[in-house]
Write a structure and sequence with these properties.
Length: about 100
C-alpha cells in the first residue's frame, strides 16, 4: 500500500474516529463503537469492514463477537501523531467548505 492509498482508507470522519478509539482503547467490539460514536451499527460495521480490507485493522473472535484492533504499532503511532499534530495547528482551514 502506498501513502495515498493509506490516506484514502483513513480519510473519513467515522473511520478516523474508529481509529482514534482503537488507538486509545487497544481493542473494541462493534457495540463499543456504536455506543461511543453514537452511530448506527450497520454504518460502523461498514467502516470496520473497509478498514479491515485495507489492512489497517484486524479482528479476532471472542465468543459471539469480533474484537477489533489496529493492525500494527506503526499505524497506531500514525493515528496518534495525526491527532496530536491537528491539535497543535490553530486553524487547519478557515473555509468550512474546503474539507
Amino acid at each position: 500500500m502506498n501513502g495515498v492509498s493509506l490516506l484514502k482508507c483513513i480519510c473519513d470522519e467515522t473511520r478516523f474516529e474508529i481509529l482514534e478509539l482503537l488507538q486509545k482503547n487497544k481493542e473494541l467490539c462493534v457495540n463499543d463503537f456504536v455506543e461511543k460514536l453514537e452511530k448506527d451499527q450497520p454504518l460502523v460495521s461498514h467502516h470496520l469492514k473497509t478498514l479491515k480490507k485495507c489492512g489497517i485493522v484486524k479482528s479476532r473472535d471472542e465468543g459471539k463477537k469480533a474484537m477489533y484492533a489496529i493492525s500494527n504499532n506503526q499505524l497506531s503511532e500514525l493515528i496518534s501523531t495525526v491527532t496530536k499534530t491537528s491539535k497543535k495547528i490553530p486553524v487547519l482551514c478557515s473555509d468550512d467548505n474546503c474539507c
